[in-house]
Amino acid sequence: MSTQTNLLATTRRSSTIDDVPTIPTRVLKGIILLLCCTVVIVPFIGVISTSIASQAHVTESGGFVLWPDSLNWASYRAIFNGGVVQRALLVSFVITLGGTLVSLAGSTMLAYALSRPGSFGQRPILMIVLFSILFSPGLIPNYLVVKEFGLLDSLLALVLPTAINGFNVIVLRSFFMSIPASVIDSARVDGAGDFRIFWSIVLPLSRAVLAVIGLFYAVGYWNAFFNAMLYISDTAKWPLQLVLRTYVINNTELSSGDLGGASADQLPPQESIQMAILVISLVPILIVYPFLQRHFTKGMLTGAVKG
Amino acid sequence: MISRRRLLGGSLAAAAGIGGLSGCATVTRSTDIAALNKPVGLPTYRRFDGPKPDLPRSHPLMPDCFYRFPAQPVRVTEGRPGDGSDVSGTVPTSNPIPPTADRNPYWQELNRRVGSPLELTITSAAGSDYTNKFATSVAGDTLGDLFNVDGKFSYLPQFLEARAQDLTEYLSGDAILEYPFLANLSTDSWRGCVFSGGIRAVPIQRGVMSSNLLLARQDLLDQVGVELGSPTVDELNKVAKAVTDGKKNRWAFAVPPAAALSAMLGLPNGWEVRDGRLVHSRELPEHKEMLAISTKMQADGLIHPDGVAKNNQKVWFTQGSAVMTQDTYSSIQSFYRRATVKTFAIGLPVVRDSAGKVGRFLLGSPNNSIAAMRPSSPERTKMLLRVLNWMAAPFGTEEYLFRKFGLPERHYNLKGTDPVLTEAGSSEVCLGEFPIQYLSDGGYPVYFPGHPEAVDVAYSHLRTILPTAILQPTYGLYSPTDSTKGKVADKDFDSLTKEIQLGRSDLSDWDKAVANWRKSGGDAIRHEYEEALAIKGNK
B253 and B147 share a domain? Predict the structure, then answer.
């Protein structure tokens, strides 16, 4: 009897995940979350503020403005004046859109084939995919392959070498394997071929994982700069991230010619231009994220727990 | 298509790095110090009789000083150096990469004047971009006919033996006189091009212009009403405290003033022969004293809060967040170009030691880098040397004017006799530094267009410090251990210096680090350099 009482008491004392936290706990959590958010958001505000601050304010603040005293859009006007940044933005959009489509097409087809028992060469191909996750060929062999395929100075060099990502293929394969075989079998009974099943049955059922993997690929293409540095000599084909790296991280000075011919006397401060480039590089991804967020949890978890 | 053997070869090259060349039977063994440092007859120096400098040369190392660009630049070459065939190359740039030849009228005119289309692969010099590109280009054999080699990578002599033309027969002694603008480059700069008993590159000469020194914002000092003069350590500290004002976002130094402190304390320039033996600066008590002083400066808040950890000194100095910084003579022009106030003025204080004498000035390397040539036939080698000679035409000539400023009206307009780049010029001529300057270039003059007062400041400083100035005694010598372990050691000491200055490590840790360095390669480097110095003779 006394043992039962003790057990009951222990159960009452221990909190569960469904318990409503006490007010001090909620306040403490709130403060910690607020601090974390501040640490993340303040640099963003600084970047945006510096991009729209006046020359005098940038100078006074030592190069980094936390809150602008006035709005000055000169940096954005200079960037969108037809210079190197505007061109690079266009290149980045082309690579990101084109690359994501190529990657999604290739990865889904490969993953679907690998998820169907009895596909030709299934195990060796799966091993090759796994091998590519574990071992990277390295800088120089990659360069040699790109060079020998005649892809140097071509935008294809920024897409094809990274078109298929082993990890993403495995996630997609896991998702496809979770689709009941009976659904596919019934489609086959109705006379659908492999491509029909893939296009009309499998892909519509896989929107969540396609959104997640598509975002992975898109973010990867959008942020990539290293391959462009190695393979692209023509600055007209540089993506935005390489421009960003050159002018922001390496602190190279933008000339008026790079900014579409803005008068040298009217050039905004270099720091403002650098921060404006940074803002421009962030915006597309920030816009895309909320639209895909609802697919995120479902897509990731389904792919992650199936073997 | 790529062959399996080629891909495997590339992978092995990646795994072994360029160091793999040391195992090759056709190049000098890395243990053969004598062969690696074998002397060779250096090119004869013959000063080109070009435009007369505006200020007298008071010292052999004094660069030519010009207030203004000569009014009527003379054409000093005849015909075109090229033979019509394509000339390819790999070069870095510190400026925005210029538009490609098909979209760049300057480049098109350059090709016409050279007489051979230049196909250049241009990569940013910042960070490790050029190093990565260079490594892939070596493996892919896409370096081209001419390529810039940025100094200090492992097994450099062996690499040049394997991949670069030996230019000795074309340039040694009086043979160079066939290329008068290359002969106009200083003998010191050619010493940096000798490897394994051969002249294997041409120098990208900077002379004293690449030496680090203390730069001060004279306009800000005047504004605050502080006289910097010619300070000792104590006086520099006093001035630093007077100009620092955190509330106004103003600090005395953008970065720790190592060059000034080294001169004030009489430190060696890297290695120094003392009592018949080489001693490195970092082994001396003066070096620890320098560390202690800069640590105190940091603790007293005299250095920009990010000055030790992050290097953005050009921006801070230009904006006035820092009153003093450390940079080179050649940086002066870029500071004036970045200036955001019309009163912007740079002062160059001559620092003094505790006895009041001019501090011993430590000269930078005579060369920015070197440029090598792919092995080719004697005819093609001579043609490429003619092209490099054309690119080295000195300041004040018509060739120089075109090379640095492009075409009148499109790329520059004259302000008096000084060319001022237009918007198209800034972009197409790469801010006056089109990257062919990393294949060959003339001597670097003291010339700051539109700022003759800055020329006076630099000249006055140079005239005072050059008699005390010293070059690294190991310059032009090769130590295999230094080439493989030196960079890592330099990085480690640099990190430790920062840790000490930020108060995260104790000054006593320096001694332990020096002891470790000596055991792990420092003594071997010393021994190799001593051996090289012994056979240096007339290298």
Answer: no
Q: Which two tokens stand for residue A238?
A: 């540089």
Highest CATH level, class, for A77-305: mainly alpha
Read off the pLDDT of residues B521-536 as tens digits, 9 standing for 90 and up: 999 999 999 999 988 7
According to the model, what pLDDT value does residue A13 have?
55
Relative to beta strand B251-253, strand B322-328 is parallel
* Preferred mutation among A66, A84, A140, A248 to probe B, highest tally of B CBs within 10 A: A140
ipTM over 0.95: no
User: What pLDDT is stored for residue B537 in this prediction?
Assistant: 56
**Does the beta carbon of A256 lie under 8 angstroms from any beta carbon of chain B?**
yes
Mutate to test the interface with B, among A154, A225, A255, A258 (most CBs of B within 10 A): A255
Do residues B236 and B345 share a domain? yes
A201-A203-A208-A212 Cα dihedral, nearest 10 degrees: 170
Same domain, B160 and B298: no
Could you tell me the pLDDT band of residue B11, with boundaries at 50, 70 and 90? very low
Of B94, B319, B427, the CB nearest to A59: B319
The per-residue pLDDT for A79 is 76
Q: Where are the domains of chain A?
A: 17-72, 77-305
d(CA A153, CA A234): 7
Contact (CB, 8 A) for A50 and A275: yes
The confidence score (pLDDT) of residue B5 equals 46
Which residue range forms the structural domain that includes residue B205? 81-211+364-445
Residue B175 within a domain? yes
- Distance between CA atoms of residues B98 and A255, nearest Å: 10
Q: How far, CA to CA in Å, does B306 sit from each of A155, B303, B322?
A: 39, 8, 11
Report the Cα–Cα distance between both ends of chain A, in Å, rounded.
47
pLDDT surpassing 60 at residue B462: yes
Q: Cβ of A84 under 8 Å from any chain B Cβ?
A: yes
How many angstroms separate the most distant Cα atoms in chain A?
90
> With bands split at pLDDT 50, 70 and 90, how would you rate the model's confidence at B98?
confident
What is the token pair recorded at B294? 């800069």
pLDDT exceeding 90 applies to what percent of chain A? 39
Question: To the nearest whole number, what is the mean pLDDT of chain B?
Answer: 90
Specify the DSSP element, H or E, that contains B345: none
* Beta-strand runs (E) in A17-145: none
When divided into structural domains, chain B yields a total of: 2
Q: Do A144 and B7 touch (CB under 8 A)?
A: yes
Q: Which of A115, A100, A291 minimizes the C-alpha distance to A202?
A: A115
